[in-house]
Amino acid sequence: MNPFLILNVPLDATDDQVRKAYQTALQSCPPEGDPVRFQAVQEAWSQLRDERSRWKARLLPPPPATDGPMDALIALARLPGQRRPLGLPAFRQWLQACSAPPEKPAASSSAGAQQKSKPKNKRRR
Amino acid sequence: MGFDPAPFTADEAAAPVLAHLAGAKWRKARDLAKELCKQDKPRYLPLVIAANEGLAREMLGKGQVKEAAEVIAYLKTIAPPELIQSLQETKEVAVVTSAGGAAAATAVDRWNSVLILAAVVEAGGSVSAEQLAVVDGVVASFFSPPAGEPGSPAARVAEELKSVLAACEATATGQWEAAQTALRLLPRRSIFQHWRMLLRGVRHAHQDEAALAQQCFATLPEGSATARAATLWQLALGLPVPANVRAPVNAKAGGLAALVGAPSSCGLAIAQAAREWKAGQRIDCLATLTKEFRSGFPTDEPGLLSVLSDAVLSTRNSSRVEADLVSEFADDVFHLLDAPRLSPGQQLRLARFCAVAQAEELTPPDVEEDWQRVITLAGRFYGPSGVRDSMLWLQLARNMAKKESIGIPFFGRSRPRDEKRALKAFTMAVTADPLNEEAQMGLLSFYREHGTPKQLAGHVEFVIRHLPNHKESLREAGRLAVARKAYGKGLDFLRRVRQLDPLDREAGGQIILALISQAVEARKKKPGSLPGIWAELESSPGLGEAARLDPAVIPMTDPRLERWAVKLIQSLIDPDPAAAAACRAEGTRLAPSATDAVILQKLAGLHYKLPSAPEVERDWKALVAAATLTDVWRAAVINFTWWRLVDGSIRRMYSSSNFLNPILAAAGEKSPATDFEGLRLLTIYFLSLHRARLQNGVIHFQAISEALSPALEKAAKPATADARLKLALLAGQFLRYFPATVSEAEKLTARLRADGHVQWVAVGELLAEAIDRADKGFEGCDEDEEFDDKEEEGDFDDFSDEPDLPEFNLSEAEIDEFEVKAQLLGLPPGGGAVIAAIQLSPPELQQEFKERLMSTGMTEEQWCELLALLALPVPLPALRPAPTPVPKPAPKPAPKPKPKPVSADQLEFELEPPDAPPVP
After folding, report:
1. CB contact under 8 A, B174 and A97
2. Which residue of chain B comes nearest to A61, CA vs CA?
3. Which of B192, B256, B307, B312 to mutate to test the interface with A (most CBs of A within 10 A)?
């Protein structure tokens, strides 16, 4: 996951900002309390500790472990500190969707998506 | 409804209308009733009213409020006011709750049902899932219940619902205490009890108390709306979601988006994009998200959009199918790059994706163009930064310098390296940021492999100037100084490394080797300085360190760094006979075996160009005379591991024949089968590999075949020379790109079969098939089919014209099997892939050949050992004979180790029993 999100620092954060964010994150997740998050914080720190590594994390990050947009969304929601209250409209919307009869598998949407697919471009080579 | 059908039951004319009313066919009932009204309006008007009322309620149920209003307006002209009042109330509920469904239209009815169910629960009864769905529908629609008479059950249930709704609102806005307070009013036997658990679970989820949240969610009734609602937080916490609970996908995406602070309205687009992603339509997926988020997507700014950008522009290619998808997608994205509406940030993100995704498969000029575009766009978007540019140039340089894949599975695609472009990119990287250690080391490695000594030395100096305490550059500087015999300077550099890192074993080893080389030189010029060097060598902390290295970490160790070897080398160098003898005695005593001691002295003598002592020569001759197949191969392995890998020079391999050939010749003289066996194994090895891997092996093959060539020359009639020898030479010829024909191989194979050399027949057939395959490969290459025009053809100039490497699709179990074999054999990590490459390339031939070998008595274990032996480098400890119960020779002052033939059970790599080795 994006180390900037884990330490909650902006892309152009300075060394000091990153260090402070790291210290704050460590305080909130001691290794004995939440070892997984502690590990993630340590990794994020090693990726952001200086300008060179920050550029690398920004421009040449490793491929994400997630598979597709929905997976990525779930992974983001799992990040500590990322979850917020839904707000009343979204909460009501969610409850109403859940109280409606269960959806049938949407076979037609995928067929529609297939129709939308454009002809493949010719390869560059 | 207040319609009473009793007056019409005996009326035949009204019967069809009643039937339609009973079947909720309101329009048909209304039309028929209107016809009857024309005959007798006062009698049949209630039928018209009943039909219109039913129609209005149905419309409200479907959310067709506007249409229902028209019907109600008509009813106002014919129906009693109380009916109109009831319909108006229902309509208002539908409008206020905006649920737009049956829930709203029948909200009052549902509320009445809830009241009944609440009474049932209060009385200790239970409710069904369907009944609970009614309750959940009322809560989820945020229904405002009528107040009811104070103190009545209806008023109490209404208060409970209000509490739940207040708690929902507080939970939705994160007011946890208010939610708790509201829920406290809920009695234990409330019909809304499960809502209390849902809201409590949500609170725990937001307070990062996953276990407590799961406890609450686990109590939710199966299949209820609350269980479905809980899935959002279960997903967010990584908690298991029951398999039978399915939340609506679109709403789930919206809910998750809202959960991370984004508008829930984008959920629809994300869900759509996810469907397209799963269908493999990545460009459509990108388009869907771009349309939804417009200029904000793709982006690097941390948040939902950057996460989605990373997910969609992912270069992950864990399988062949995925790799093809990425490649195809990158092509599509490449064609989007020039779109005028893209912002510089979007362009940079897309260009970066293209550069990374296609770095392995495009031609070097294309890859360079891609990365230069990224560097330019990054400069334009972020402003100038040497650190960033250096990093990007380094990425390009590494890509250009990357060695071609050699057919080992799991290592991705292959593209030949482009040294010129690599050098340019490395230079740009170190110029842009001289403090970029990775770039500096990258260029250093590049110069080591491709540069001149002058370039390398110049670069090392440059690195040390900018990074004075950089260990690797100091080590390299030390190595270079020692290579040009500036021992003092070299040792200074190496000692600086040890000062920086007292545990640096590599520097420790280099100090030992430097001192030995210094002693060799001093022997000629300043023999008096030798005692000082010996003292320094003795006290050197690196002595013996390498021998203790974990083979898994550094598979190759240099035996010269072990104390016994140093002592033996010292014995060769020291001109003082007494001191030399003492060292030799000490070294032999410490050596793993007498054979090792003799082989090492002989090798060291050849390496350092030092004359061996007469007794060493005598022992050597005795060893050669007693050489068995196993000795030969052990010697060859030591030769490989030390001479080839430690010194790292292919030229050295030519000189290795000086060592190997006498053994082969002697062994062959003693037993012709021995050297033929060696030759046969080497032939298998080379034929099993792709040509790209043969560069080093061919030299050894040449050395061995040269050793046998006198035998060929001695033959009175070369045409009648041993078919095994001729086959081996034909294989060598083929491998060295000289023409060889299938018919030659087949003729020799026939002779071998006639002579009864079963195992050689297999080699002959393998060779014939390899030649045939190569011929077909060249014939089958039709350039006109591959390239559209000459311009495109030109792009392939840099590519090898060799046929494509074989590809393997191994199952995980098969990969594991190889890895287990590799571990059993003590190969370094990745050894399984090496074995797989040898064993499976070309797969059909290998399998067939293996079966043939098995039929001649070879066991599976021996086959694996053979592969391991052939798949050099093999860690030296793994090749040593197992510890023997035979005690080592006592340390005598004048050792005369007589080599003993090693018994078969002591050896690890004996494939077949030698042909009755004579004991000297």
Report:
1. no
2. B310
3. B307
State the DSSP code for B6. Answer: G
A73 contacts B257 by C-beta, under 8 angstroms: yes
Cβ contacts of B395 within 8 Å, gap of 6 or more: A60, B371
C-alpha R_g of chain B: 43
Whether B195 shows a pLDDT value over 80: the answer reads yes
Please tell me the distance from the alpha carbon of residue B426 to that of residue B397, in angstroms, as a whole number.
5
ipTM for this prediction: 0.86
Q: Name the one residue in this structure whose structure tokens are 């009528």.
A: B146
* Backbone angle region of B609, left / alpha / beta, with phi > 0 → left and psi within -120 to 50 → alpha: left
In this structure, what token pair is assigned to residue B168? 């929902």
> Which of A84, A97, A120 is closest, CB to CB, to B261?
A84
Helices (H) and strands (E) in chain A, counts: 7, 0
The whole-number average pLDDT for the span B503-532 is: 86
The 8-class DSSP code of residue B640 comes to I
Residue B825 C-alpha, separation from nearest chain A C-alpha, in angstroms: 33
* Cα distance between residue B822 and residue B868, in whole Å: 8
Long-range contacts (CB closer than 8 Å, 24 or more residues apart) made by B719-722: B722/B672, B722/B676
User: Does pLDDT of B336 surpass 60?
Assistant: yes
Contacts of B99 in chain A (CB under 8 A): 96
Pair of tokens at residue A53: 């590594």
Strand positions, DSSP E, B699-776: none
Question: What backbone torsions phi and psi does residue A105 show, to the nearest 5 degrees?
Answer: -55, 130
Q: At what angle do helices A69-78 and B249-259 cross, to 10 degrees?
A: 40
d(CA B652, CA B217): 71
CA torsion B378-B382-B387-B390 (nearest 10°) is 10
Alpha helices by DSSP H, listed for B141-209, are: 153-172, 176-184, 193-206
How many CA atoms within 13 Å lie on the side-chain side of B470?
22
Which regions of B654-776 does DSSP assign to beta strands (E)?
A: none
Please count the residues of chain B: 920
Helix (H, G, I), strand (E, B) or coil at B786: helix
A6 neighbourhood in chain B, CB within 8 Å? none
Using CA atoms, how far residue B689 sits from A14, B697, B734, in Å, is: 52, 10, 13
What does pLDDT average to over chain B?
Answer: 73
Give pLDDT, residue B749: 87
Q: What distance in Å separates residue B301's CA from the closest CA in chain A?
A: 7
Chain B residue with the nearest C-alpha to that of A92: B140
> Cis omega before residue B842 (within 30°)?
yes
Rounded to whole angstroms, the Cα distance separating B661 from B667 reads 10
In the numeric block, the tokens 């109403």 are attached to A96
pLDDT category, B417, cuts 50, 70, 90? confident
B 69-128: CB under 8 A from A: 99, 101, 103
Over residues B255-312, the pLDDT tens digits come to: 999 999 888 889 899 999 999 998 888 899 999 999 888 878 888 888 889 889 989 9
**Please, which residues 22-81 of chain A have a Cβ atom closer than 8 Å to chain B?**
51-52, 55-56, 58-61, 63-78, 80
The angle at the Cα of B380, spanning B377 to B386, to the nearest 5 degrees, equals 90
CA distance B162 to B176: 17
Q: Give the chain A residue whose CA is nearest to the CA of B793.
A: A125
Q: Do B485 and B522 contact (CB within 8 A), yes or no?
A: no
Distance, CA of B351 to chain centre = 23
3-state secondary structure of B920: coil
A100 with B101: Cβ contact below 8 A: yes
Is the bond preceding residue B242 a cis peptide, omega within 30 degrees?
no
Is residue A14 less than 8 Å (CB to CB) from chain B?
A: no
Q: Are B354 and B399 in contact (CB under 8 A)?
A: no
Residue B748 pLDDT grade (very low, low, confident, very high; cuts 50, 70, 90): confident
